[in-house]
Design brief:
The protein is an alpha/beta fold. It is built from 23 helices and 30 strands. The protein has a 7-stranded mixed β-sheet with strand order 5-4-18-17-16-6-7. Helix 7 crosses helix 11 and helix 7 runs parallel beside helix 13. The chain is globular and about 70 Å long. Bound molecules: iron/sulfur cluster. Keywords: 2Fe-2S, 4Fe-4S, Iron, Iron-sulfur, Metal-binding, Oxidoreductase, Repeat. GO terms for molecular function: 2 iron, 2 sulfur cluster binding; 4 iron, 4 sulfur cluster binding; formate dehydrogenase (NAD+) activity; metal ion binding; molybdopterin cofactor binding; NADH dehydrogenase activity. This is Formate dehydrogenase subunit alpha.
Length: 676
C-alpha cells in the first residue's frame, strides 16, 4: 500500500453486499475509502471477509456517482436543486392516489429507510402497493415458514452451524454466494460434522461433503419427500416432538405412504439407496441443520420446496433447539430488514397483517389507512403495462435487469406517467425516470441493517456523500413533509428507529445505544433481553403454538422437450453482485472471473459441435440472447448455466409465478442452444 493510500482513520460498520452481514472497519483517508478489514470482534465473521467485502467497497468513490437531482425535460435530464426536485415530485404525486401509486423498497437501504418508504406509501399515498426484491428471492420462505412454524426467518444462527452434527446444504452454492458462511461449514466438517450437499451442479462445497445428491434441476420436493419417506420407513422420526409440538402429521404420513419410490427416482434422477442414505444420516444425527438459498426458492413451486424442508426438520425434531433449524440464507445485506419493516403489500412492519392490525397502525400513525391489500412486485409492472399504475417510486433497485421477462418490464416503465428513481448510480432503469434522485451509499449514512440470522447491526457514516447526494430517509421525509404529511419530522435515523421499536414488538428491546457495542438478534422484547440466537424454544409462533406439517405438490414447471432440450440454471458469481450497479464500478473484479458466459458440460459442447469461446444463441419460450460458450464439467449433461449478472439473462426466464408467494420461475428455464 502506497503511503498516500494508507488510511488515516477507521470507521466500524457492516458490509453492504450479502446477507451474512460481516462487520467491517473501513479505512478512510481524506474523504475516500482506501481499505477494509474484517472486524475481529464481530461474531458473524470474526475478522474474515470475502473478496467483495475486502476489495469491492471503493465503488463508493466512483466518479460515476449521482451528485445532483435530475429532472427530465424534453427527453434530456437537467440538474436541479433539491428544493425544486422535491416541489416537483410533491406536486406530481399529489395528482395520484391509492392504487395508481406503487413503491419499490430496497434491500440495499437501511431499516429506517424501508420503514419510511412503506409509511409514506400507506399514510401519504394511501396505497398498500409496496414490495421489494425479497419477492424475487425469499418470498417462498416468508410464506412457507410463517405458515408452518410461525415466522418467516432463519430459525437458528450462523455460528450454530459450526456445532451442528449434520448440515444439509440444499439449493445453495454457499462458497460463491455466502462465502463467510461456507467457511464456517468447512470448519464444521473439519471438526467432525457431516455434510450432505444437494445440488444439480457439482459445486465447490461437494469436495467437503459426506453425501452428494445431484438431482435434476427443479426436483427438490420429490427428493426431500424421499428423505422423509426413508426416515419414516426406518422409524427415525422424533415421536415425542411430533406429538407434543406439531399438527398434521397423520396426513403427512399418509401422503408419504402414497409416494412410490419409482416415481421419486424417475423425477429426481437419484437412486432410492442414495436418498435413503442421506435421510438416515440427517435423521440419526443428534443435531441437524438445513441451509438453503435461491436453488430452493426461485421456482414456481418455491413455497412447496420450503414446506418440504420444514416437514423434514419437524419429522426429526430438528427445529426449536440449538445447533439445528431451517435456515434460509438471505441474499442481500438488508433483505431480512426490508421484510421486517413492512415493505410488503399485505403486512405492516413486524409482519402484522393489514387485516388484523390496521386499527393499531391508524392510531400510531394518526391517519386512516387503505383497507385493500396491495400488489406484489411483478403485478406492479403488469398493472403499469395496463395503465393502472401511473406513478412509481423506485428506491435503490434496478428492476429492468433483476425482474423476469424484462421486455415486459421495459414496456411497463415506458408506460408509467411519473417515475421516480432514487439511487447512487445511474442505472438501466433510471433512463426511464422522470426524476432521478442522488442517494447516499452505506458509507455515507447512519442506520441499521438486519442480517440473515435476524441480527440488527449499526452502520455508520464514514465519509461525506458526493455532491448533493442525500440519505434515502432524508429524501422520503422531505417529500412527505412537502406534501403536507405529519409523522415525518425526523432529524436522524435514531429517531426513526425509536418509532420502529414502538410498532414492531420483536425490535422493541433493541436500541442504538445497545447496538453500539454489538448487533442483537430479534426477537428482543425488552432492554434486558439479550435477543434470540434461535427461535421456537418455548413454542411455535403459530396461533395454537404448534408447528404444522403441510403437504407440498410434486408438480414440476418446465421440463425439457424436443424444442427446448436444455435446462438453463441462473445463479451468481463470488466476484460480482446482482445487476452489478456496484461491482461494475470496482476495477479488477472482472479479472477474477468472466461472468458473461454460458457454461455447459463439454459432452454437450461436443454434441452441438461448439468449442470454448464459440457463440451460441440461447433461446427460451420468452426470448433469446447470444453468449460465449465456456465448458464446465461440474454441470450435468443437458444443463447449462448463466449468471444473472449477465445483462440479458432475464429475457429468457419466465414470469409465471408461484401461486402462494408470487415468486417467478427465475432459477430454471428450458432453452435451446443454437451454434452461431
Ligand atoms: Fe460481505 Fe457477504 Fe462477503 Fe461477508 S460474506 S464480506 S457480508 S459479501
Amino acid at each position: 500500500v502506497k503511503k498516500s493510500e494508507k488510511p488515516s482513520r477507521e470507521v466500524k460498520t457492516v458490509c453492504p453486499y450479502c446477507g451474512v452481514g460481516c462487520g467491517i472497519y473501513l479505512g478512510i483517508r481524506g474523504n475516500r475509502i482506501v481499505s477494509a478489514r474484517g472486524d475481529p470482534k464481530n461474531p458473524v465473521n470474526n475478522g474474515r471477509l470475502c473478496v467483495k467485502g475486502r476489495f469491492a467497497l471503493n465503488f463508493v468513490n466512483s466518479i460515476e456517482r449521482l451528485e445532483k437531482p435530475l429532472i427530465k425535460e424534453d427527453g434530456e435530464f437537467k440538474e436541479v436543486e433539491w428544493d425544486e426536485a422535491i416541489s416537483f415530485i410533491a406536486d406530481k404525486l399529489s395528482k395520484y392516489n391509492g392504487d395508481e401509486f406503487a413503491a419499490i423498497a430496497s434491500a440495499k437501504c437501511t431499516n429506517e429507510e424501508n420503514y419510511l418508504l412503506q409509511k409514506f406509501t400507506r399514510t401519504v399515498m394511501k396505497s398498500n402497493n409496496i414490495d421489494h426484491c425479497a419477492r424475487l428471492c425469499h418470498a417462498p420462505s416468508l410464506v412457507a415458514l410463517k405458515e408452518s412454524l410461525g415466522s418467516g426467518a432463519m430459525t437458528n444462527s450462523i455460528n450454530e452451524l459450526k456445532k451442528s452434527a449434520c448440515i444439509l446444504a440444499i439449493g445453495t452454492n454457499t462458497t460463491e454466494t455466502h462465502p463467510v458462511i461456507a467457511y464456517k461449514i468447512i470448519e464444521a466438517v473439519k471438526n467432525g460434522s457431516k455434510l450432505i450437499v444437494v445440488n444439480p451442479t457439482r459445486i465447490e462445497l461437494v469436495r467437503h461433503a459426506d453425501i452428494y445428491l445431484r438431482n435434476k434441476p427443479g426436483t427438490d420436493v420429490p427428493l426431500i419427500l424421499g428423505m422423509c419417506k426413508a426416515i419414516l420407513e426406518e422409524d427415525l422420526i422424533d415421536h415425542e416432538f411430533i406429538k407434543e409440538r406439531t399438527e398434521g402429521f397423520e396426513s403427512f404420513r399418509e401422503y408419504l405412504s402414497g409416494l412410490e419410490w419409482d416415481e421419486i427416482e424417475l423425477l429426481t434422477g437419484i437412486s432410492h439407496d442414495d436418498i435413503r442414505e442421506a435421510g438416515i444420516l440427517y435423521a440419526s444425527s443428534p443435531t441437524a441443520s438445513i441451509i438453503y438459498a435461491m436453488g430452493i426458492t426461485q421456482h414456481v413451486n418455491g413455497t412447496d420446496n420450503v414446506f418440504a424442508l420444514s416437514n423434514l426438520a419437524l419429522l426429526t425434531g430438528n427445529v426449536g433447539r440449538v445447533n439445528t433449524g431451517i435456515n434460509p440464507l438471505r441474499g442481500q445485506n438488508n433483505v431480512q430488514g426490508s421484510s421486517d419493516m413492512g415493505a410488503l403489500p399485505d403486512m405492516y412492519p413486524g409482519y402484522q397483517s393489514i387485516d388484523n392490525h390496521r386499527e393499531k397502525f391508524e392510531k400510531k400513525w394518526n391517519c386512516k389507512l387503505p383497507t385493500e391489500k396491495g400488489i406484489i412486485l411483478p403485478e406492479i409492472f403488469e398493472n403499469a403495462c395496463k395503465g393502472k399504475i401511473k406513478a412509481l417510486y423506485i428506491m435503490g433497485e434496478n428492476p429492468i435487469l433483476s425482474e423476469p421477462d424484462i421486455k415486459s418490464v421495459e414496456e411497463a416503465l415506458k408506460n408509467i406517467e411519473f417515475l421516480i428513481v432514487q439511487d447512487i448510480f445511474p442505472s438501466e432503469t433510471s433512463k426511464f425516470a422522470d426524476v432521478i434522485l442522488p442517494a447516499c451509499s452505506f458509507a455515507e449514512k447512519d442506520g441499521t441493517f438486519t442480517n440473515t440470522e435476524r441480527r440488527v447491526q449499526l452502520i455508520r457514516s464514514a465519509i461525506r456523500p458526493p455532491g448533493d447526494a442525500k440519505p434515502d430517509w432524508w429524501i422520503i421525509s422531505k417529500i412527505a413533509k412537502k406534501m403536507g404529511a405529519a409523522g415525518f419530522e425526523f432529524e436522524n435515523p435514531r429517531e426513526i428507529f425509536n418509532e420502529i421499536r414502538e410498532v414492531v414488538p420483536s425490535y422493541s428491546g433493541i436500541s442504538y445505544k445497545r447496538l453500539e457495542s454489538e448487533g442483537i438478534q430479534w426477537p428482543c422484547r425488552s432492554e434486558e433481553d439479550p435477543g434470540s440466537t434461535f427461535l421456537y424454544k418455548d413454542g411455535f409462533t403459530r396461533e395454537n403454538g404448534r408447528a404444522k406439517f403441510i403437504l407440498p405438490s410434486l408438480k414440476l414447471f418446465e421440463t425439457p422437450d424436443k424444442d427446448y432440450p436444455f435446462m438453463l440454471i441462473t445463479g451468481r458469481s463470488l466476484y460480482q453482485y446482482h445487476t452489478r450497479t456496484m461491482t461494475s464500478k470496482v476495477r479488477g473484479l472482472e479479472k477474477f472471473k468472466d461472468w458473461k458466459f454460458l457454461e455447459m458440460n463439454p459432452v454437450d459442447g461436443e454434441r452441438l459441435g461448439v468449442r470454448e469461446g464459440d457463440f451460441v444463441l440461447v433461446k427460451s419460450r420468452r426470448g433469446a440472447v447470444k453468449a460465449k460458450v465456456k465448458f464446465n464439467e461440474a454441470l450435468m449433461e443437458g444443463v447449462a448455466f448463466m449468471s444473472f449478472h449477465f445483462a440479458l439473462v432475464n429475457c429468457l426466464t419466465s414470469s409465471v409465478r408461484d401461486p402462494l408467494s408470487g415468486m417467478p420461475a427465475l432459477k430454471v428455464s428450458c432453452v435451446d442452444l443454437i451454434p452461431q
